[in-house]
Amino acid sequence: MRYSNATKIKTNGIVYTPEELAEYLASSMYEYFSIEDKKELRILDPAIGDGELVIALLNVIRRNTVNIDIMVVGFETDVNVIPKTIGRLSQEYPNIHINIHKEDFLAFAGGEAQKYEFDFVIANPPYIRTQVLGADKAQLIAKQAGLSGRVDAYYAFLVAADQFLKPDGIAGFITSNKFMSVKSGMKVREYLFSKTKLLQITDFGDTKLFDASVLPCTLTFKRGKSDGENIGFTSIYETTECRADFMADTIFNVIEKEGVVEINDGRRFKIRQGKLEVKNESTPWHLASEDQKSWLDYVDSITWKRFSDIGKIRVGIKTTADNVFIGTWDDTEEQPELLMPLITHRNAGQIVPRNSSFWKVLYTHTMQSGKRKVYDIEEYPISYQYLENHREQLAGRQYIQKANRRWYEIWVPQNPAAWKSRKIVFRDISEKPEFWIDDSGAVVNGDCYWIEVGEDIPSDVLYLALAIANSSFIEKYYDYKFNNKLYSGKRRFMTQYVNDFPIPDVTLPKARQAIDLVKSIIADPKIAAMQKAELDNVVDEIFA
């Protein structure tokens, strides 16, 4: 890693490149490059660090040619790193020309400076999120790169790279795989697909190649436009399958194969090969083999509704001071008047909640004349005294002050009137999907999402939705279509994914059977374990 200090890694988004990953990316780039008749090569690393990626690329070049003049240009903002990097490059390759700028590449790319064209642009840019960058810098990067919405710094690096490539040049990047699946990455996906010729994507998922919490992927592309059919895609994720098709020291020894590999530390990974599936710029990028594509097309053909048709998906409340607003509130304590039951991930279960006892939240909002309004806290003496005891912490939230909000407010309270209506609640991050119906009137916390169900939606449609959402079928659908797993096999059940979940025709005989099974589980949760396997089979048969 570039820094051993975890705080510095998190703040600066700087993560050192493992040697094997650097070699893999460099080899992938060179595979698409034509070296014939080249008398000189120009290499750019816009976030050069200690030069691991450049060294890997130079190694590949020297294995294939010797009589060629090479210029390396790098950008690095850490003044302490630059001399070490120059020394390392000069020692290993004394005949190359080296020019490392102590400058932010994004500032250079967005300025008026002359831009040079390079044969190779290779980078592992920092993974800095908007809230770490700060609003002003985030907006500047967004403007320079033509991006909108939440901005991660590596988005801008990807977009800027195209400006620095020669017509036949190759770019290779190591980035977080998030941009391929999240809504905020849509503009980057659109840009890369329409403004560059994508060559190969390798999603390393939860392989833990980095010490930091980064799920990496590699991209290679050149100038041009993608054709949408011949973009190679390799996916590598840890699996619990007992079998192993082959053994290897590391995944890089077998990365071109397909199947389950067991590496020398005992972990198993499933390697899948295929093509990039792109329907439009708003949909996530994912691997699509012919079998997967055919299966997804068939599911689409028998889909009657989507989850987006039954209600609006909302995230739970965000207090930004959970230690004050949320707790178990022992019954022996004096109870603040504004306490409400709170659903958290502790309640999550499939079809029925695992735990029916709720935590509580001191909820600071109500509805008045159809509009959300914060309570006048002084009218509730116990609540007021409790919050007053924590005033220093609550009033210190600067964003509350800037928004001209009351010092004691919950930051994101959602719609107070909606809690009383029936809703489908589901956990944000979990290995298995956990969706259930709540009609208790409880507030939903920010570690869960909830569907504000339309008043015109029949109950049977909700029961069928629960059957689908909690099934092994939806796990397969999720992995084929979104493939956005975190570490330890956990999935993110985000709005954009759940909105797309399919619902078959409610009148189908198998759909009616699934509805009846869900009703029986809700009526008697003790039989859930027995009925779940049968329900899984019924859902599979609906989409078979």
Describe this structure in words.
- This protein is an alpha/beta fold and about 550 residues long.
- It has 2 domains: about 5-290, Rossmann fold (3-Layer(aba) Sandwich); about 310-540, no CATH class.
- It has 19 helices and 26 strands.
- Strands 1, 2, 3, 4, 5, 6, 7, 8, 9, 10, 11 and 12 form a 12-stranded mixed beta sheet that branches.
- It is globular.
State the gist of this model.
This protein has 544 residues and is of the alpha/beta class. It is built from 19 helices and 26 strands. Helix 7 (135-145) packs parallel to helix 8 (153-161), helix 15 (459-469) packs across helix 18 (509-523) and helix 18 (509-523) packs antiparallel against helix 19 (528-542).
Sheet having the most strands: 12 strands, mixed
CATH architecture of the largest domain: 3-Layer(aba) Sandwich
Q: How does the overall form come out from the CA principal axes?
A: globular
* CATH-defined fold name of the largest domain: Rossmann fold
Mean pLDDT: 88
Keywords:
about 550 residues; alpha/beta; Rossmann fold; about 30% helix
Topology of this protein?
Blueprint: H1 6-12, H2 19-31, E1 40-45, H3 52-64, E2 69-75, H4 82-92, E3 97-101, H5 105-109, E4 118-123, H6 130-133, H7 135-145, H8 153-161, E5 165-176, H9 186-195, E6 196-203, E7 216-223, E8 232-238, E9 246-248, E10 259-263, E11 268-277, E12 286-288, H10 290-301, E13 303-306, E14 311-315, H11 322-325, E15 326-327, E16 339-343, E17 359-362, E18 365-368, E19 371-374, H12 381-389, H13 391-395, H14 398-402, E20 423-427, E21 429-430, E22 435-438, E23 443-444, E24 448-453, H15 459-469, H16 472-481, E25 491-492, H17 495-498, E26 502-504, H18 509-523, H19 528-542
Parallel strand pairs: 1-2, 1-4, 2-3, 4-5, 6-8, 9-10, 16-23
Antiparallel strand pairs: 5-7, 6-7, 8-11, 10-11, 11-12, 13-26, 14-24, 15-17, 16-17, 18-19, 20-22, 20-24, 21-25
